[in-house]
Amino acid sequence: MERKLKIVTENCPQNHKCPAVKVCPVGALTQEGFEAPTINYDKCISCSKCSNFCPKKALVL
């Protein structure tokens, strides 16, 4: 079963630059302004680094 990253926007405060964007080793997360990050599923390797890093649990694998 393939794991797929999801963003729980209700948990994302969307009032700062998302620190998890920098943690992604393959650049699969991007962010416009202070909006919730977006996921490029073609790049995402489901490593869970971003979901483990997010203190608000807005990134879920």
Descriptive key words:
13% strand; Alpha-Beta Plaits; alpha+beta; 4 strands; two-stranded antiparallel ribbon; 61 residues
Topology (SSEs and partners):
Elements: E1 6-7, H1 20-23, E2 29-30, E3 38-39, H2 49-53, E4 59-60
Protein described:
The chain is of the alpha+beta class and 61 residues long. It has one domain: Alpha-Beta Plaits (2-Layer Sandwich), CATH 3.30.70.20. Helices cover 15% and strands 13% of the residues. It has helices at residues 20-23, 49-53; strands at residues 6-7, 29-30, 38-39, 59-60. It has a two-stranded antiparallel ribbon with strand order 1-4. A two-stranded antiparallel sheet has the order 2-3. The longest helix has 5 residues, at 49-53. The protein is globular. The model has no long low-confidence stretch (mean pLDDT 94).
